Amino acid sequence: MVNKITLRKVLPQVFRGSEAEAPVNSSEIWLREEVVFSRPGNYIVEAESGTGKSSLCAFIYGSRTDFDGDILFDGEPVKRFSIEKWCELRCRSLAYLPQEMRLFPELTAMENIRIKNRLTDFKSEAQIREMLERFELDSKTDSPAGLLSVGQQQRVAIIRALCQPFDFLLIDEPVSHLDARNNRTVAQLIEEEAKAAHAAVIATSVGNKITLAEYELLKL
Question: Dihedral (C-alpha) 59, 64, 65, 69: value to the nearest 10 degrees?
């Protein structure tokens, strides 16, 4: 279980040497003495493209390590974590929806979701189908993901991300392809799942924010 994620003077290495250009490449998050994400809670990280939102999620998830400074989980630096430790965290504590979604286009919507769910058996078949119905995807269950619209793919990817236990849910621009109605539906389900898990949501945005009821807004 992870209760607190702390960033201390974190900066993507690609920005190294540009610290003086704070309004461009730095932020309220990058280079702060300390930024803390605690569970439960909702956090929106808002920024223009190219300022490091996706990098932030990847650093926290451990899929990228090209940063200066320290990221700590409950006080323990992540740079010391073993591969086994990261695998356990990604299975039990960290859920992640990347911006590019990473669906298998030749597999159906349901098959894409089942691949993730089989790792933990976190959701029943009935629960998955209920989520698909809430997202108006019940008629697309057996459709190849590659034939779905981008907005439909995004909703499938959100369901897949929720098919595991988590303490922190990282979602990179989760409603970039959704209209206001679908945004509300997605936000409601995410809030329900996070509340049930006593978890925190960290979402990024370029301005089209997920409509979480209460959130702390941080700007890059």
Answer: -20
Burial (CB < 10 A; 0-12, 13-18, 19+), residue 174, is buried
**3-state class of 170 per DSSP?**
strand
Place of tokens 């189908």: 129
Crossing angle of helices 125-134 and 150-161, in 10° steps, is: 140
Tokens of residue 190, six digits: 């995410």
State the Cα–Cα distance between residues 187 and 201, nearest whole angstrom. Answer: 11
Give the count of alpha carbons within 13 A of 217, CB side only: 12
Which of 160, 205, 154 shows the shortest CA–CA distance to 177?
Answer: 154
Query: Is 118 a residue whose pLDDT tops 60?
Result: yes
pLDDT at 176 exceeding the cut of 90: no
Give tens-digit pLDDT for 63-117.
999 999 999 999 999 999 999 999 999 999 999 999 899 999 999 999 999 999 9
Residues in the chain: 220
In whole angstroms, give the CA distance from residue 211 to residue 151.
16
Residue 31 pLDDT grade (very low, low, confident, very high; cuts 50, 70, 90): low
User: How would you class 151 by CB atoms within 10 Å of its CB: exposed for 0-12, middle for 13-18, buried for 19 or more?
Assistant: middle
Within its chain, how far is the Cα of 80 from the centroid? 22
Residue 147 backbone dihedrals phi, psi, to 5 degrees = -95, 0
Angle, alpha carbons 47-60-195 (nearest 5°): 85
Starting from the edge strand earliest in sequence, which strands make up the sheet with 4-12, in order? 35-38, 4-12, 67-73, 76-77
Reference 185, options 164, 146, 167, 159; nearest CA is 159
